[in-house]
Each structure stands twice: as C-alpha cells, then as structure tokens.
C-alpha cells in the first residue's frame, strides 16, 4: 500500500506540465551541481537509524540537534513509524470534528472495532471500549464503575500510583465522596499484605499501577490473588509498552484494566491529546463507560459495524448512564491501532526488550557516578529513581543549559525528596545521547 497521496495519474499530469518523463529527472540538476562527496551514500538501515543519519546531514545546514530527553513520568518518547502520521493525515480520518455520530461511517466503526480487539489482546481482557480521554480519566472511570458494581464506598490505592492520576481520581469522584485509603510502598513497590489488610466489606476496588510511578514492576499477580477472594474488584493500571514482556492485567486477575495509550504511536505533543485505554471482563461490560462498536449482519447476511453500546445520558435515562463521556479519542485510537498492527507481536516484544535493556544500561552508568546510587533495588522497566549528592533541581537547570532534558526532580511531587530524580530511557535513546547525559551529569555534580 502506498503512503503517498498522489495517484499515478496525478504524477503523470505534473510531469507532463514540467516537460519531464520520470520523477528522477527532477533531481538530475541537483546531482550534477553537487561536488563529489557532498551527497554521501546512506547504507542499508532501519527507519529509526535512517532518521538519525538524516539528522546528521541536516546539521550541515546549521539545523540544531534534537534535544535528548530522559524524562518520562507519565508521557514517553517512543519511536513513531512514519506510516502512522502519513495515514492519520489522510482526509478520511483527519478532521477537527470528533466522530460524534459514527453510525454514518462504516470505516470509523470498523476502526473502533479493530482497536477494541487489539486492546483486548494487549490487556488480556474480554471486552474493551473505543477509548476514553486519557489514562488518568480511565482510572477514575474504572473506580466509579467498581463502585456501581459492588456498591462499595472504599477505594484502596497504592501510594505508588502516579500522583496526577490520583488527583484526577479525586476530582472525578468528589461528588460521590468515596473513602480513599493508600497502601504503602516502602521499598518503591506496593506492600501486598498491607494492601490486602486495608480491604473491608465496603471496599469497591483495589488499585495498583505497574510499572508504577517510580518505574518499578509491581507484583500484580500477587495483588490480583489477594484482592480476588475479598469481593472487591481489582483495577490494574498498565504501561502498554511493558506488556510486550510482562504479564497482562488479565493474566494477573484484573477485573478492570486501564492505561495511557500515548506510547502506542503518539508523540509527546506538549501533553496531548492522548488516549485512555479501558478493558474489563465481559460480565461487567454494561457498566463500562464510553462507547463500544460491534459486528452485525443485515437481512441479506451482509456484515456491518454498529454501535453496540453507548450508555450515556444522551441515549438513555440520565440515572442509568455510566458516564458523561460523549465521544472517544478516535484519531489517537487509530494511531494506536496502526502502531500495534505495524509492530506485530514480535516487533512489539522487541521494543519492550529494548526499553528494558537501555534503561538498565543508563541506570548502571549513572549509578557509577560519584555520590549517585539507585534509590530502589526492586526490578524496574524503563524508569528508575537516582539519588544525587546535590539538589536535583540544580542538576536539572545545568543539564537544561547544556541542551539536555533531564529526569524529573521528585521534589515536584514530594517536596522533601530534594536529592532524587526520576530518569527514563526508551528505545529512542542512542548511545551518543547516553554518553552526553553522563558527561553533563559529571560536570553538574562536580
């Protein structure tokens, strides 16, 4: 399939206007005028490697290098295959207007259905919606859903869940006034015995995020086993890329699985728009917020895609509505669908392994610097907390002056943690970028 919008007829018409016979003739004068060696041959390479080589060539024109980014903390820089923005920018998909009434378009409905199918497979769950606004709102909707199902008022949350997600949860649930209690994470990972001890007869759900805000891989299977017999629902928040090598929420016994889907083919984009992933067990599907696309057949047996569920107050009685979500992040969901399709199971697992390996390589280099050490010894994915001998915010400023985006000083969220920084390394981090960070850190710490 061609990702170039021009048809053969378009190209032939343009060449005829220019008086040329083939596209290559457009570049003949450039090649003739260029001095020997000015246009270096680029050896066979992957798309990612090729892009780095093109950046090297671009610097000859005085274009500044990309700023290395070692900050994750909820939004992650991953490689986005060029096919994704090319396809998203097609007029059939790219519109300023949300597909509020998707019944008019079989294509949009099919895209929703394919997205849901992929998310079910990714999460190891039985049903998924066509997305919500972002990961934080997905978690909040999951908590409200659990309260409706169990009639419980208590929410037990690991204190290692992302602070922004917790704040969104508080805002979403303010009017229903749940009792929110936190399970401790003394060594960076949630204490499963303490989590279980906090569950009472009035508990609607227990919530664990893995990898958590510190990048640590939680014992989600143990958490699921502890929560299952209590009658409370287990809500597992996941980092999609990590599922290429870690157990899925479904395998861990989750009743509801949520995630931020930004890492699946979406750029950082200054904080959004992003993509909330939401999946659950089939028996709870009618309590799931958002919209669900399904497959049907007409009287002639022809296959078609329809809105199976759309349980908001616009369509049903207000008191029966599961949420006020009126649309979904369809363009972002399409990006995730394209990403998962292009990567495939093997490619997706490879990306996860690269994230794991690169982050551990960076952690070893930084922990070897004088006065630095890893704050936690628990297994981590692609983020880790580094303890520094000086204030983290001072290091952040010095690295910024050197053109490097450092890790996040944890004092932003916990004022007392002045000498700790949360670093992230994904598959886009090169060895040269890593070397540049280590050199910058050595200078900032001296």
Keywords for this entry:
Aspartate Aminotransferase, domain 2, Aspartate Aminotransferase, domain 1, 15% strand, flat, 2 domains, single chain, alpha/beta, four-stranded antiparallel beta sheet, 446 residues, 13 strands, seven-stranded mixed beta sheet
Average pLDDT for all residues:
91
Q: How many whole angstroms does the radius of gyration measure? A: 25 Å
Annotated CATH architecture of the largest domain: 3-Layer(aba) Sandwich
What's the CATH topology label of the largest domain?
Answer: Aspartate Aminotransferase, domain 2
Question: How much strand?
Answer: 5-15%
Q: Briefly, what CATH class of the largest domain? A: Alpha Beta
Number of domains: 2
Word description of this protein:
By secondary structure, the chain is of the alpha/beta class. The protein has 2 domains: 83-339, Aspartate Aminotransferase, domain 2, CATH 3.40.640; 343-445, Aspartate Aminotransferase, domain 1 (Alpha-Beta Complex), CATH 3.90.1150.10. It has 12 helices and 13 strands. The chain has helices spanning 8-18, 28-33, 47-58, 83-88, 106-123, 135-150, 163-172, 192-197, 220-227, 330-367, 392-401, 431-445, and strands at 127-128, 154-158, 179-183, 203-210, 233-238, 256-260, 276-280, 291-297, 303-310, 373-374, 383-387, 408-409, 420-424. α5 (106-123) packs parallel to α10 (330-367) and α6 packs across α7. The radius of gyration is 25 Å and the shape is flat. The relative contact order is 0.14. The model has no long low-confidence stretch (mean pLDDT 91).
């Amino acid at each position: 399939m061609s990702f170039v919008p021009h048809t053969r007829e378009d190209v032939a018409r343009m060449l005829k206007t220019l008086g040329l016979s083939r596209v290559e003739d457009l570049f003949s004068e450039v090649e003739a005028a260029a001095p020997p060696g000015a246009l270096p041959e680029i050896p066979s390479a992957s798309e990612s490697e090729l892009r780095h080589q093109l950046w090297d060539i671009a610097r000859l024109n005085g274009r500044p290098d990309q700023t290395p980014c070692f900050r994750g903390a909820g939004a992650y820089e991953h490689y986005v295959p060029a096919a994704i923005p090319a396809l998203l920018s097609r007029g059939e998909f790219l519109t300023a207007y949300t597909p509020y009434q998707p019944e008019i378009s079989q294509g949009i409905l099919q895209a929703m259905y394919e997205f849901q199918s992929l998310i079910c497979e990714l999460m190891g769950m039985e049903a998924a919606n066509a997305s919500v606004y972002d990961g934080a709102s997905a978690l909040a909707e999951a908590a409200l859903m659990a309260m409706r199902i169990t009639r419980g008022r208590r929410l037990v949350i690991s204190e290692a869940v992302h602070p922004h997600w917790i704040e969104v949860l508080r805002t979403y649930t303010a009017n229903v006034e749940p009792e929110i209690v936190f399970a401790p994470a003394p060594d960076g990972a949630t204490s499963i015995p303490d989590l279980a001890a906090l569950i009472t007869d009035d508990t609607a759900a227990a919530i664990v995020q893995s990898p958590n805000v510190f990048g640590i891989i939680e014992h989600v299977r143990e958490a699921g086993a502890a929560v299952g017999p209590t009658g409370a629902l287990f809500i597992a928040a996941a980092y999609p890329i990590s599922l290429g090598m870690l157990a899925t929420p479904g395998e861990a016994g989750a009743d509801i699985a949520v995630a931020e889907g930004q890492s699946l083919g979406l750029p950082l984009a200054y904080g959004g728009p992003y993509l909330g992933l939401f999946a659950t067990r089939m028996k709870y599907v009618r309590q799931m917020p958002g919209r669900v696309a399904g497959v049907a057949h007409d009287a002639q047996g022809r296959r078609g895609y329809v809105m199976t569920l759309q349980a908001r107050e616009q369509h049903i009685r207000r008191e029966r509505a599961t949420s006020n979500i009126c649309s979904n992040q369809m363009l972002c969901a399409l990006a995730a669908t394209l990403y998962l399709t292009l990567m495939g199971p093997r490619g997706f697992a490879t990306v996860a392994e690269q994230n794991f390996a690169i982050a551990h390589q960076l952690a070893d280099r930084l922990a070897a610097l004088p006065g630095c050490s890893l704050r936690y010894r628990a297994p981590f994915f692609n983020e880790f907390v580094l303890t520094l001998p000086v204030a983290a915010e001072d290091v952040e400023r010095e690295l910024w002056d050197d053109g490097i985006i450092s890790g996040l000083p944890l004092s932003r969220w916990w004022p007392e943690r002045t000498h700790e920084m949360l670093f992230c390394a994904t598959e886009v981090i090169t060895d040269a970028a890593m070397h540049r960070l280590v050199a910058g850190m050595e200078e900032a710490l001296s």
